[in-house]
């Protein structure tokens, strides 16, 4: 039993100051240890507000009163009724007390009992302890932004929510930059200044700080010289007063607001800047029926189309159906109901290099376009689980036919997506009855086969092999699957596997002309490959033979030279050496 107890205690080891997460909330009047192995006890006298607690390095403001058990006073802020402010983690009031304060909430009052420290004339005995009654008045969160002390942020006023700007976002900030002596060297106009985080502003590391802030947050920043203007300083100009070399800068900053910017396509060719957040958590995905209003402009602001403005009706369309330009289609699929945004679209996702006549003006070739757009409403396409079995089969059949039309038009990428979606609606989930299962299976296999055909057109050989293998796992004798997988194997240069699939296909359908043609192709390609290999080996052996011959000749030359050296070194007839 002793061993078991020791193991359990080891498993419960915790760092000083760590709160036992599994412990129930402490009741008023209850006393408990801070952690299992902590010598410090905490008795809750008054509950605090909220759930947040300070961290080490934060600046806390507290009232406290310390006493020994015999009644001797260790100091109190209550006498002057002036709370004290200090940095947590530096034991500025009493050794060990900081470990207790980091467990407190704002406004909380607690009594801490802890071992007496050998300082301040306090005798340290076996049972010598001190007690501190502490009220946590407030604290300022301190953040070491770069983790090296180079930029310190003190949060003077917390912002709203948890969202923080990213490097693409547009922010509105107010700031004032000053030297240590208080000389202001730069500040924004009264309304603040807008800029994109990635573009930077004032100080090169300011964007890093801004990305740690929330809307409405106010903070005091301290920039060490290496993160300001270093040992060169800065001359006056561009809104700055001169800054001496090796200057520490103090910055008061407020993140007034920010507009999220989304890289819709991942290649920075369709950029969406959100002006007004939409409702809820759902967006208009692919296949949704959407209703939007917008003003469409060229990059210089020339308007070429309006929808849903004034008496003009809004535009209704289905996303991912090529009913509008690609960039607009992709951007709308990311929007929530009620969302307003500015969408900037590169020519490759707009009208390309052709001239297009629109309602108001002609859009020149290669034009970048901008849409000031609002998502009025959308109806998402129903998911498979929201449909009856009959509806699933109907939707799958319709999507398959849409895929066929796209395939015939040479739009293989979009056709593949249609087939993939169709197969999802008739997936083998056990919900279909016997008759329905036959229809669902037939549709599913057909979509996989068509998906393989798309992959072959797109040179996605791995995808083609995958789809065909899925079919063959269900119908091992499916000739189309064997034929298309053989085609993919041929393109990868795996003639052996291609030949295996062709033989299986001919066993099922010996008269299939297309498979026979493919067999002849494999035979010819294999013969060509064999010839190439033979030529390669022949060249390798010829090179090796030539190299051996050269090496032999070199050996003979060396031997001859060594013999000559030996003859030259031989003694002469008179016994002297040459």
From TrEMBL:
MF-aspect GO terms: peptidyl-prolyl cis-trans isomerase activity
Q: Which UniProt keywords apply?
A: Isomerase, Repeat, Rotamase, TPR repeat
- Biased composition, class Basic and acidic residues, residue ranges: 553-562
- The answer, when asked if Isomerase is one of the entry's keywords, is yes
Which reaction equation describes what this protein catalyses?
[protein]-peptidylproline (omega=180) = [protein]-peptidylproline (omega=0)
Q: Which residues form the PPIase FKBP-type domain?
A: 57-140, 168-259, 287-379
Q: What is its EC number?
A: 5.2.1.8
Q: Region Disordered: start and end of each range?
A: 1-35, 553-578
Q: Where is the composition biased (Acidic residues)?
A: 1-18
Q: Where are the TPR repeats?
A: 479-512
- Enzyme class at the top of the EC tree: isomerase
Stored PANTHER family: PEPTIDYLPROLYL ISOMERASE
Family note: Belongs to the FKBP-type PPIase family.
Q: Output this protein's name.
A: peptidylprolyl isomerase
């Amino acid at each position: 039993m002793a061993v078991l107890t020791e193991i359990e205690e080891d498993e419960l080891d915790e760092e000083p100051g760590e709160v036992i997460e599994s412990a129930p909330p402490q009741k008023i009047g209850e006393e408990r240890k801070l952690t299992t192995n902590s010598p410090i006890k905490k008795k809750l006298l008054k509950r605090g507000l909220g759930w947040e607690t300070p961290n080490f390095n934060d600046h806390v403001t507290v009232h406290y009163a310390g006493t020994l058990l015999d009644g001797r006073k260790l100091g109190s802020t209550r006498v002057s009724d002036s709370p004290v402010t200090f940095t947590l983690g530096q034991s500025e009031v009493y050794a060990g007390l900081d470990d207790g304060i980091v467990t407190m909430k704002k406004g909380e009052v607690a009594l801490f009992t802890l071992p007496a420290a050998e300082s301040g004339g306090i005798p340290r005995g076996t049972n010598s302890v001190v007690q501190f009654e502490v009220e946590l008045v407030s604290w300022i969160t301190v953040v070491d932004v770069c983790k090296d002390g180079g930029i310190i942020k003190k949060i003077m006023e917390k912002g709203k929510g948890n969202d923080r700007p990213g490097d693409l976002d547009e922010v509105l900030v107010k700031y004032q930059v000053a030297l240590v002596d208080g000389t202001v060297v730069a500040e924004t106009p009264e309304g603040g200044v807008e800029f994109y985080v990635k573009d930077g502003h004032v100080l090169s590391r300011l964007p890093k700080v801004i990305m740690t802030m929330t809307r409405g947050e106010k903070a005091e920043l301290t920039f060490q010289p290496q993160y300001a203007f270093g040992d060169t300083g800065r001359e006056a100009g561009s809104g700055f007063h001169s800054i001496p070399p090796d200057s520490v800068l103090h910055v008061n900053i407020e993140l007034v607001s920010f507009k999220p910017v989304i890289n819709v396509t991942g290649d920075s060719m369709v950029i969406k800047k959100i002006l007004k957040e939409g409702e809820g958590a759902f967006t208009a995905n692919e296949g949704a029926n959407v209703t939007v209003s917008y003003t469409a402009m060229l990059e210089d602001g020339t308007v070429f189309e309006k929808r849903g403005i004034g008496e003009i009706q809004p535009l209704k369309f289905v996303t991912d159906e090529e009913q509008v330009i690609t960039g607009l289609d992709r951007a709308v699929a990311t929007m929530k109901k009620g969302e307003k945004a500015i969408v900037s679209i590169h020519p490759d996702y707009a009208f390309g290099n052709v001239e297009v006549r629109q309602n108001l003006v002609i859009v020149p070739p290669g034009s970048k376009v901008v849409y000031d757009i609002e998502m009025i409403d959308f109806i998402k396409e129903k998911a498979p689980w929201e449909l009856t079995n009959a509806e699933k089969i109907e939707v799958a059949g319709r999507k398959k036919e849409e895929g066929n039309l796209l395939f015939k038009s040479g739009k293989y990428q979009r056709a593949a997506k249609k087939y993939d979606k169709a197969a999802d609606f008739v997936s083998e989930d056990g919900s279909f009855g016997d008759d329905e299962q036959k229809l669902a299976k037939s549709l599913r296999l057909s979509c996989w086969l068509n998906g393989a055909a798309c992959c072959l057109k797109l040179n996605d050989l791995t995808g083609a092999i995958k789809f065909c293998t899925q079919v063959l796992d269900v119908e091992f004798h499916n000739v189309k699957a064997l034929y298309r997988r053989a085609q993919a194997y041929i393109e990868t240069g795996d003639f052996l596997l291609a030949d295996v699939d062709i033989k299986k296909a001919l066993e099922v359908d010996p008269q299939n002309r297309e498979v026979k043609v493919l067999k002849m192709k494999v035979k010819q390609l294999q013969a060509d490959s064999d010839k190439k290999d033979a030529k390669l080996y022949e060249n390798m052996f010829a090179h090796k033979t030539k190299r051996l011959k050269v090496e032999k000749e070199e050996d003979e030359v060396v031997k001859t030279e060594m013999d000559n050296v030996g003859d030259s070194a031989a003694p002469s007839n008179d016994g002297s050496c040459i």
